[in-house]
Every structure is written in structure tokens, then in C-alpha cells.
Amino acid sequence: MGRGKGGKSRTQRKHFQHNRENVWKQPRPESSSITNNLFDIQNPDFDHYYKEQNIVSLEEWDSFMQVLRTPLPAAFRINSSSLFHADIRSQLENDFAPALQAMVDEVDEEEAIRPLPWYPNNLAWHSNFSRMQLRKNQSLKRFHEFLKLENEIGNITRQEAVSMVPPLFLDVHSNHVVLDMCAAPGSKTFQLLEILHRSTKAGSLPDGMVVANDLDVQRCNLLIHQIKRMCTANLIVTNHEAQHFPRCQLNMDCDIMGPDQHNSQLLFDRVLCDVPCSGDGTLRKAPDLWRRWNTGTGNGLHNLQILVAMRGLSLLKVGGRMVYSTCSINPIENEAVIAEILRRCEGSIELVDVSGELPQLICRPGLKTWKVCDKGKYLVSCKEVPKVLRNVVLPSMFPNGGSYQDTDCNSNCDVNGHSEDGVQEAENHMMHEFTEELSDFPLDRCMRLLPHDQNSGAFFIAVLQKVSHLPAIEVKIRKKVDRQHVESVNQGNEDAQVLQINPSESTRDEEVCEQVSEDNKNEPNTADLKFSPVIDEGDSEEAQEPHNEENMAKITPSKRKLQIQGKWRGVDPVVFFKDEAIIKSIKAFYGINEHFPLDGHLLTRNSDTSNVKRLYYISKPVKNVLELNLSVGQQLKITSVGVKIFERQKSREGRSVECAFRITSEGLPLILPHITKQILSASPIDFKHLLQYKNIKFAEFVDAKFGEKATNLMPGCCVVVLGEGNRTAAEALHVHESSIAIACWKGGASLTVMVTSIECQELLERLLMRLDRATEKGSSIDEK
Ligand SMILES: C[S@@+](CC[C@H](N)C(=O)[O-])C[C@H]1O[C@@H](n2cnc3c(N)ncnc32)[C@H](O)[C@@H]1O
After folding, report:
1. 241 lines ligand 1 (CB under 6 A)
2. Is the per-residue pLDDT at 263 higher than 50?
3. Where is pLDDT greater, at 655 or 378?
4. What InterPro entries has UniProt attached to this entry (predicted)?
């Protein structure tokens, strides 16, 4: 195929330089991108604030700011679960890297593209081009097209380099149940799923799973769209406020989880807490943030961040790990949050030193001291905060925390140091000379990634380990609900076919405790509120939460109202599909072996099970969670679950065949190793023709035998595997000759491909590249 090779062409180089100049018009680095013409890339408040915080030493300040003002180089990750990940890596190493390098050699000393040294197996790449350059520069067109196509297909994910770090520190194993609390748009969820699937053999599914949650429905949909490319049966997507993520806790004596799963609450081995933040670590990517930057944003998010992190820790198993991360530079959203949760957890949580885990990653220790700023006023201790500011400046923002109850100092003074009786306490805070606080916690174990260290965005990461149950923390606002005599009744899940999702109209109303909603996140609640939703496993009020209607009468009316409202509004129900006749017909038609259980693993999102259009496959751990969720009154608001595996063929042809359910592209990789009928192996040339022409008459296949076999298939859906032609599909799969396969429709006289055009195009290109390589290899062997 006529793909460009790495040779240096003078015209190309000239063209590249010309285009590059078009993009980077101004002298670097002060204003080095088109975007920088549009936005003011400075903000005196930002400079002042971060100089006060000693984010970097004064000697480093200029280089820090210089890099922060340049556009962010694009980075991307090869999805290790893709069939073609090795092909793509090799294409980058052997084709794009030398070709792009040849273009930039005389312009720049930095490598055009290179693998990120700290990311395993050369699967993550840094490019020395900003997104804008990739879009505008003609010479980069081929590379840009490649990135776009592979991203769409799901072979790569375009993601900021530093954002790839948190999942790596989570130490996920294939049997872990993982919660991604603020997951959308899903780049880290994707990574977590990849890690989970990494060590599972073809044809089997991991014992673990991911619950990806986000507050924003639209962003949840983005995540679903992203992850669809992954074809996983081990994911549930939920839509809750993370700080009120349901506990799904059963009465302790129940053991509905089966002998291999003793938990009666949905607890997690790993939690990723990538909280909403002010995002000033992304200034290189979003320069409009310069204009909007102010200290209020971080201050306003601090309390929500604590609540989300505390909820995450309470849902974490003892011994489990949680990673807290933000793309903010601000210590109020970072170290202050970590210090506060360590304070609240009283030794049950440890901050882990992971500095040796990714030795090539350049990171700096977390800060141990910082200041709180409100509207230009800098405060070093909560004792210094005047009464009028106590709603916005919380004690938890200071290195040593504290409480306004413990301090009467300044209590009569307003923000300018005026006391209530009108007498000015001149320079009040000066008089008291509060000393800067230094946190006692080992906050230096937190990690700060800064832009000028490795030409990236900025990020903050803290790794936390739960060493024992959390202490029960005082909840002031929580209404008293007497549930002592309430028995938790576990409605037998085996006869409940329909999982009609949780009886509550809104997540906000779901719990009785005080909460900070997304809407009022910039207005922190009363500062001395020792609120925390933390009541750990076992001693939680919710531990005895009743879920049958009889018991509803014993709890508060408002709670009862919420519990019996029916399914979540606007969300499709999750229904176990149990139509034996259909399941039997699918099994028989495709000859699905017993290693791939369908019973209990198929779902629909339609309560009218007589008219099911799509069937979703779920893995065993997902099944366990759904069953638990059913038993606890369907607390989870599930927007997506499992992988679409079968779809009813609506056409006239579909109605006349023995099995109207066709295998979907997403479901094919999952079921492929388990089907024994309706499957054929095609020679590369016939496979290629199928992708090229989409529909081929039986008589027109190059391999006449293949045409014959295709004629003998039952009418309806079938699968064509790329093989060497003379093997059966089962043999082809068995010898790992290939797991490249496509779903087709066997009609009266021809085979029709049932794959989208873009997938066909990508598959065709990959196939042609492999054929090219095989031919090259063959000819070099011949030459030898
Ligand atoms: C930093 S982004 C997460 C990025 C994501 N982890 C990724 O890697 O693609 C923060 C997310 O938190 C969500 N969010 C904001 N407030 C939330 C809350 N109270 N509970 C759950 N999610 C929330 C936002 O919708 C946003 O998608």
C-alpha cells in the first residue's frame, strides 16, 4: 500500500516549516500559539496567589509560567485491549516517528513523537504538536487523520498525559471491584477497564468490574459512547452525586451474594476520586481560564471535594486503595482536602508513599504549608478568620484545620478588622502575628505534576490506603431516624425479574443528610459544621435501611415518599431477560457452548419483555451487583450496563429466519470464542473483498469452497473469521491464527457485511498493512 515511509523529503520539510510558522507566529514562548492571540494569558491574581503559596521557588517561577503559557502538546494512549494495539505501536515507532522527525529535524530539537517513558509498554505517546497544530498544519494531515480515525474506532484515546497517571497508582487487579466516582468523560474509566481485562484469557471475563459514576447525565452519555468502543461486560454506569453514592447495604445476616461473595454491601477494592476542580492545571489546553481564574473557585469546591473523598473512603474495603486527584494546582483543592480527610479519619486512612512506583515520572512532593486567600486577603490560620468570612473560609482549608467553636479571636471583627462596637482593631491580624501553619501529616507523600517538569499539564495525586474502619463521625444535620426496630427484609431476588430502578425522583432527595449540590458548590455551607456522611460499614444508619413497603411506614414520611415512588424517572429499567424460548433458540442457532452462560447474564432495558429489541450481556460480578441492588430496593440509578450483544433484525428477512437476533459488533469479540455454528473462516482475499464490497454473491468468492460453505449456512446472522482459508473457523480461532472477525447476514444468494463503514475502512486498512508486511517478509526470505 502506498503509505508514506520515513524518508526525508525536502519539499515536505519546507512545507512543514511554512505551516509551522503559520501556527506559531509570535516569538516563543510568551505567545506561541494562535489561541494565545485570542485570550489574555496572564492574570496578576494568579501570579500573586501562587507566589504566596510557593508552588515553585522564585528562581523557577519564570520557567513555570513560560511553559504554562504555551499550548499543551497532544498526547494519546493506545488501548491495550484493542486487537491491533501491537500494529498501532509498531506503526508509530516505525512509520510516524521517523517520518515526523524528518519534518521537524531542522525546526526543533525535541522529538516529534515519543512514548511517555513512565507509561508501561510504550502504549502512551507524547507528540510535540498542539491540537491546534495538528488541525491546521497540512504536513501533519496524515498523522492527524490517523489519530482521528483510531480514536473513533477505539484503538487509541486522546488524553492529556498527566491525566493517565492516577489509574496507574490505583494498583488494579483483574478481580477488583472498582468505583470511579466522577468518571465522565471516561478516559480514566477506559484505562481502569483495560487494566482489569489485561490479564484475562481470550474467551473469559475478569472477576472484577468497574462502576463509573457521574453527576451529569449528558457527560454520562459521553462516557458511555467512549466506553462502547471497549466492548466490556464488566461495567455499570451510574448517575449520582458522588458524595451520596448509594451504600447498597443489606441486613448483615443475608447472604444473597452467594458462597463466593460474602459481602452484603457494595464495597470497593479500589476507588478513583477524580473530583470536579477549578482546573487551572489545564491552562495550557484551555487558555480562556486565565481570564476567569480567581481564588473563589477553588475555595468554593473545597467542601464538595472533601465530601466526595469521604464518601469514597467509606465505600472502600478495609485494605483497599483510593486515589484522589485533581487537575488543579491549588493547595485548597489538594493538600487541604487530604489533610482534612486524614483528620476526620483518625488514623484509619494512611497516605501511601508511591514515589518508587513510576520512577520515570517527574513529580514533586505535596506542600505542607499554604495560605487561604479570600478576595485578596491572605489568612494563615483559622483563628484569624473574621466572623463574616466563616461561611466561605472553612477551618478545613488551613494546614492544621481547627474549628470556629474553639476560637473567639476576631469573632467580633469584620473582614477589615472593625469590631462590632465600631472600634477599629488596626491591622488586627498583624497584631496577633499568627504564624504560618505546618501540617503534621506527611503531605509530602502527595504528588504534584508541574508543566515545566515534563512539558505537560499540571496534576495532583494522593494515594490513600484504608487500614481500618472509619470512625463514626458526628452528623449534626442528619435527621434522627429511629430504625432500631426495623427489620431489613430481603425480598427474594430470584422471583423478581424486573429490576425497576430506585424509587426516588432525584439523587438530591435520596438521602437525609446535608449535602452540597453541584448548584451551590461555590457557596460552602456553614463552616464549623462537623458534617461528614462517613458512617462506616457495620455501624451505619443505612446499614439497617429497610426496603419493603411495610417497613417504610416506620421511617420518616419524607424518606418513605422517596422510597415508594417507583423507578428512576427518565431512566430505562434494567430487566433480567428470562425468555427461555428465545435464549434456547439463540444458543441452538449459534451453537453457543456451556462456557458462555446466557441464563442470568442477559438484560434488556425494556420492561415489556415480549417486545425486546436489544439484549445486553453482563459478567458475573456485574450480575452480583445488580442482584444486590435489587435486594436493597434498587438504589443505583443505572444509565448503562453490560455490552449490547444481540439485536433483533427488524427487516422482512429477519422475521423469516430461525433466529431473529443478530450478533452485534460490540458483542462479537466476547462471544466469538464460544460459537460453534454459523461461523466460517475466509481467506484473506475473500475477507478483504467482503470489507471492500460489503455484499458478495456466493458464486463470486475467490475460494469456491468458502462460497459453498456460505451457501450451506442457515439464513440469518453468521460470523466470518479471517483465516488462511483452508481451516475451519474453529481451527482458525483455536490456533490463534486470528480473532479478526465480522458479523454478516446470510441471505438467499449472498453474504452481506453487518459492520459500519468506518469499521470496515479501519479493518481493511489494518488488514492491508498486515498483508503488506507479510509480503515484505516473504520477499526478503525469498531474496535470502
Ligand atoms: C475532572 S472531571 C472527571 C474526569 C474523568 N475522571 C476522566 O478521566 O475522564 C470531574 C467530573 O465530575 C463530575 N461531577 C461534578 N460534581 C459531581 C458530583 N457531585 N458527583 C459526581 N460527579 C460530579 C463532572 O460532571 C465531571 O464529569
Report:
1. yes
2. yes
3. 378
4. MeTrfase_RsmB-F_NOP2_cat, MeTrfase_RsmB-F_NOP2_dom, Pre-PUA_NSUN2, PUA_NSUN2, RCMT, RCMT_NCL1, RsmB/NOL1/NOP2-like_CS, SAM-dependent_MTases_sf
> In whole angstroms, what is the distance from residue 652 CA to residue 253 CA?
53
214 known ligand binder: yes
Return the pLDDT at 740.
Answer: 87
SS3 41: coil
Does any ligand 1 atom lie closer than 6 A to the CB of residue 185?
A: yes
Do the bridges between strand 643-648 and strand 614-617 make them parallel or antiparallel, or are there none, so unpaired? antiparallel
CA of 133 to the centre of ligand 1 (A): 28
CB of 575 closer than 8 Å to CB of 604:
yes
Residues in the chain: 784
Which residues are catalytic, by number? 327
Gap between the Cα atoms of 293 and 477, Å rounded: 33
Residue 276 Cβ contacting ligand 1 at under 6 Å: yes
pLDDT single digits (tens) 544-571: 222 222 333 333 334 433 333 336 878 8
What is the pLDDT confidence band of residue 539, given thresholds at 50, 70 and 90?
Answer: very low
Query: Does 188 count as an annotated binding residue?
Result: yes
**What is the distance in A from the centroid of ligand 1 to the CA of 303?**
15
What domains appear along the chain, each with residue ranges and CATH number?
10-30+73-157 (no CATH), 164-466 (3.40.50.150), 678-783 (no CATH)
Q: Kindly report the protein residue whose alpha carbon is nearest to atom 13 of ligand 1.
A: 182
Sign of CA dihedral 133, 139, 140, 142: positive
Q: How remote is the CA of residue 279 from the centroid of ligand 1, in Å?
A: 12
Count of C-beta atoms within a 10 Å radius of residue 748:
8
Distance CA 108, CA 393 (A): 47
Greatest C-alpha distance within the chain: 101
In sequence order, the 6+-apart residues with CB closer than 8 A to the CB of 267 are: 177, 315, 316, 317, 320, 537
Q: 442 among the known binding-site residues?
A: no
Instruction: Tell whether 187 is in a known binding site.
Output: yes
Residue 335's contacts (CB-CB under 8 Å, 6 or more residues apart) are 366, 367, 368, 370, 399, 439, 443, 446
The answer for residues whose C-beta is within 8 angstroms of residue 328's C-beta and 6 or more apart is 277, 278, 279, 280, 281, 298, 334, 458, 460
At 392 the three-state DSSP class reads: coil
**Cα-to-centroid distance, 215 and ligand 1 (Å):** 7
Helix locations, 92-216, DSSP H: 97-104, 131-136, 141-153, 165-168, 187-198
Q: Whose CA is nearest to atom 6 of ligand 1?
A: 183
DSSP 8-state code for residue 441: S
Q: State the distance between the two ends of the chain, measured CA to CA, in whole angstroms.
A: 23
Report residue 642 as a C-alpha cell.
Answer: 453490560
CA–centroid distance, residue 221 to ligand 1 (Å): 13
pLDDT tens-digit profile of 734-765?
A: 544 458 899 999 999 999 999 988 888 888 88
Cβ of 188 below 6 Å from ligand 1: yes
Q: Give the count of beta carbons closer than 10 Å to the beta carbon of residue 567.
A: 19
Q: What is the pLDDT of residue 360?
A: 97
Residue 771 φ then ψ, to 5°: -65, -40
Looking at ligand 1, which residue's alpha carbon is closest to its atom 10?
A: 276
Contact, 270 vs 170, CB < 8 A? yes
Question: What letter does residue 294 receive in the DSSP assignment?
Answer: -
CB 120 within 8 A of CB 359: no
Cell, residue 666: 460490540
In this predicted model, what pLDDT tens digit does every residue of 273-307 receive, in sequence order? 999 999 999 999 999 999 999 999 999 999 999 99
Query: Which residue's CA is the closest to the ligand 1 atom numbered 27?
Result: 184
Nearest-atom index, ligand 1, CA of 304 = 19
Atom of ligand 1 nearest to the CA of 163: 8
